[in-house]
Structures are given as structure tokens and as C-alpha cells.
Amino acid sequence: MRLAWFLVLTVAASVPVAARAQAAPAADADVAYEQQAVGVRHLVDPLRDGATEDAQGHPTYNGKWDAFGGADHRPLDEAAFFRIVGRDDLARRYERQERVKKGVTAAGGTLLVGGLVFAALAALPTGNGAVACPSSASGCGSQSSQWASPTWGLALAGTGVVALVVGHFLDPTPIGADEADRLAHDYDQSLRRSLGMAETASRR
């Protein structure tokens, strides 16, 4: 009788342990997925009244996007996002175009400031030169001279303004929001498979 009770208690005690043993890997997979999954947000341009939807109820997407990762939605820069989803080629393109954008912007700022300084210095007279001339000559007197024309500096500053405008509108992002969203979705599904989880819609 005692042996029977011992067997019953042993089986009863082993059931929760087995259940926990099966649940532990699933819980670990969920945690790993939440930490490693990525997502993409489609950015919107608010209307004048602050609304982010038009009169038909459609979001006012501007075609741009940003990426996030983990359960806390930590921001990811685009190069890091592309490398996480396995697109090193897009990461290199982004970094190359970002360098071009920064270079054009920096050159524009330098030309603008340098041109204005040049124009200001060129506008200053170098001094009064007293010119000796015959008493019969007309137009003699105190004359001021300039070492350069301020127009050159203004032309440089204008070129700098153009470069700043071009740099502002250069977009280093090699893909649009829809393509980025597809990359994030495919990566999340691949991550679920590698963790032994059922394939469902990726977290957003």
C-alpha cells in the first residue's frame, strides 16, 4: 500500500517538472525573438492641424522610414539595419551615399562662410593713397583702392548656398519604406524558423 502511494506521488510530482521542461525552451525562444526581431516604421508628415491622416482616413506617409530592434524598439541606423537583415551591399551603398551627402554639405558651408568673409574683407578699403599730380591735371586727390572685388566672395557664397541645398535634398537611403518593411518581415520570419518557432506575422 505504501509502495502504491509512493508511485502515485512520484508520478504527480513529475508532471509539473516535465511541463516546465517543455515550456522552458519555448519561453527562451520567445525572449530571444523579442530581443533580436526588427521592425520598420513608415514616417508621416502631420497636416497643419497636427493630424496624421487625410480627409479619407489615409495616413499621410511621406515615403521615408526608420528601423527599430528589440522589445524596447531601440532605434537602429540604416547601416546597422541592413547588416542585421543580411544586406551588406545596401549598407555599403548607404554609407557611401551618406559620405557624399556630408561632403557636399560641408563644402557648401565652407564656401558660404568663406565667401562672405572674403566679400567683407574685399569691401574694406586698403587705405587712402595721396596721389601727386600736375596742377593742370583734373581728377587728382585722395583715392581709395581695393585689393579685390567683393563680387568674387559673393559668388563663392552663392555657390555654397547651392551646395547646401543640394546636400539637404540628397537622400542616402537606397530603398523605400515598402522594401525596408519587406526585408524586416523576411528577417523576422527567418529568425522564428531558426529559433524553432511557428511562422507568424513578425512583430511590429
Account of the protein in words:
The protein is an alpha+beta fold. The chain contains five helices and five strands. The strands form two sheets. A three-stranded antiparallel beta sheet has the order 1-2-3. The protein has a two-stranded antiparallel sheet with strand order 4-5. A hairpin with a 4-residue loop joins β2 and β3. α2 runs antiparallel to α3 and α3 runs antiparallel to α4. The N terminus is likely disordered.
Instruction: Quickly count the helices.
Output: 5
Please estimate the helix content: 55-70%
Number of E-state strands: 5
Q: Which H/E pattern describes the elements?
A: HEEEHHEEHH
Order the strands across the largest sheet as they lie in space: 1-2-3
Determine the strand fraction and express it as a percent band.
5-15%
Shape, per Cα inertia axes: elongated
Average pLDDT metric: 77
User: Which consecutive residue ranges, at least 5 long each, have pLDDT under 50?
Assistant: 1-24
Described by strand count, sense and barrel closure, the largest sheet is: 3 strands, antiparallel
Instruction: Report the radius of gyration as a whole number of Å.
Output: 34 Å
- The secondary-structure class comes to alpha+beta
Sequence-ordered SSE layout with sheet pairings:
Layout: H1 2-36, E1 38-44, E2 61-69, E3 74-76, H2 78-84, H3 88-123, E4 128-130, E5 142-144, H4 150-169, H5 177-194
Antiparallel strand pairs: 1-2, 2-3, 4-5
What's this, in brief?
It is built from five helices and five strands. The chain has 204 residues and is α+β, with helices and mostly antiparallel strands. The strands form two sheets. The protein has a three-stranded antiparallel sheet with strand order 1-2-3. Strands 4-5 form a two-stranded antiparallel ribbon.
